[in-house]
Amino acid sequence: MLSLDKICYTIDKGDEEITLIKDASIQVNQGHFMAIVGPSGCGKTTLLRIIAGLNEESSGAIYWKGRNLAEDEDLSPSEIGYVPQFSIAFDELSVEESIESAIRLRVRTRSLQEVDSILDNVIAKVGLEELRDRRVEVLSGGQKRRLGLALELASNPVLLLCDEVTSGLDPKSEQEIVQLMHQLSQEQDRIVVNVTHSLSNLELYDSVLVLFEGRVVYHGPPDSLTHYFSTDSAENIYPSLAQQTPAQWHDSWEKHSASYYKKQDAAEITGSTPGDSAHHATPIPGRLVQLHTLLGRRWKIFFRDRTQILLHLAMLFGFPLLVVIFGLDGIPQPMHGTGIGSGNLIEKIETEIKVEKNKLEIGGLLSGLVMFQVILLTLMGSNNSAREIAGERLLFEKEKFAGLHVSSYIASKVLFLLILVAIQSIWMGVFVEFLIPSLPGELLSRLITLILVNAAMTSICLGISGMMRTPEQSSLLSIYLVGFQLPLSGAVLALPHWLEPFTRTFISAYWGWSGNLDLMKDPKFSQAIDKVTEKTSIIETGFCLTVLALHITAGIAAAYIGAKRHRWD
Ligand SMILES: Nc1ncnc2c1ncn2[C@@H]1O[C@H](COP(=O)(O)OP(=O)(O)OP(=O)(O)O)[C@@H](O)[C@H]1O
Ligand SMILES: [Mg+2]
After folding, report:
1. Domain 1-75+189-273 is of which CATH architecture?
2. 41 C-alpha to center of ligand 1: Å?
3. Whose C-alpha in 222, 316, 401, 540 is 20 to 30 A from the C-alpha of 210?
């Protein structure tokens, strides 16, 4: 039995406290199908989320088979299914792929056959056999709701909580989904709770809970509703509610509730002991298995998103082309002051000027080419990851609630992005190397700096993506960050000396540029590079790589911390 004992839920709004749920006490038997109804804004979703454990009650207690969930062990993620109001699957996947990934993420299976057998079973239960191969994006509203239920059934939960899964459907589809939930409550003693605005099909529920401004004003059989609210049909109970205050309705229900609950099986309340439900909990897969499932799914989604692929390809091939345009004539050879003009003073001065011009030309070209490469790689980095977490946040929250380890999730993002970063940076480095003749420095070390600067920006933007509330916020912030790389690096216009340590420290492009130019400072080109840079601005490559590695670590840590937070709204 699920029972709520005087549950209150208050939130702080500035100086005042707002009570969203007040003294909710109900009891729901195993195998019971309950509706939570009430006018918009009365607290239905809030109550459902308290039961799910997503909102923590301010006072009162919730018992599951006699076990206090706040004090004793909570229900395991696989024991609760929560179907939220928003869409819960990736548009790019098919029905079958979505359910299969839910099974692999939530259920510890021993073989592929076991996965297939759960998959067939779940698909049959929700009636989606004909639509196994259909993409989620083209499903109808009703089919999406069935899919939402199917994802939760993957772990065979004992408590299934559904928020408005029938809203916005035509009457026939609504009835079919209510019937489906009714059937689901009849298997395995499962409690199914459905929040709904709709007052039709109430006869299919075992009980109806009416909420009014955060108070329980009725919980009982659907056929007694009209009598209790003195109306001729259930559809008219909302207008009747206005005839008394919520407190009056609540008091009146308190008096009647005892007789209703007495009718319920008393043995259920007293007979259960804590730990009764332990055998229901399906073990959750290990971190590596989840990581493997997530990675496979990420690549599948990546290859099916045509727009993203085109954008990636355009950047991958277009950006290096942009760089080489500036260096197609190759790097000029450094001139030497001695030996060229040994004649008179004027010739010497002319030669000296030529040498200086030559140094400036070479230094400017090398510094510009490197900075251009680095900036374009940071742009690719921000495109790689700015929406990576924020763009799928609600889906991720849902999967986290169902037992997905945050570490597996972040690791899957890191490995996925690592491949993109490696391809982009290596291609950039190699392409530029072969099309711009006589670039000083060694290719392998240059590739390492390019990979690290791209990885640093990708990682920082992944961190932003984990921290921000919406994909729009995250993209905007990431693009601003790329925009500030060039001015704040101090490579084009020198910054005030006292400001440099504060800004440069955080600017990945600076460390990529500096590390890369340092590699080019062989005796031949050293003077040319010194000519166009300040003495202190070129720092040893090893140190630059260390700072970039710190940027990468900080980005991943921020992504992990952001992903750990609950972000349902
Ligand atoms: N974090 C919050 N801060 C302030 N008010 C909140 C917060 N969460 C919920 N509320 C308020 O609490 C009330 C109940 O919200 P809830 O979402 O539970 O209503 P509901 O019954 O599910 O409504 P609907 O039928 O429209 O979905 C609403 O008035 C809502 O504005
Ligand atoms: Mg709601």
Report:
1. 3-Layer(aba) Sandwich (3.40)
2. 5
3. 401
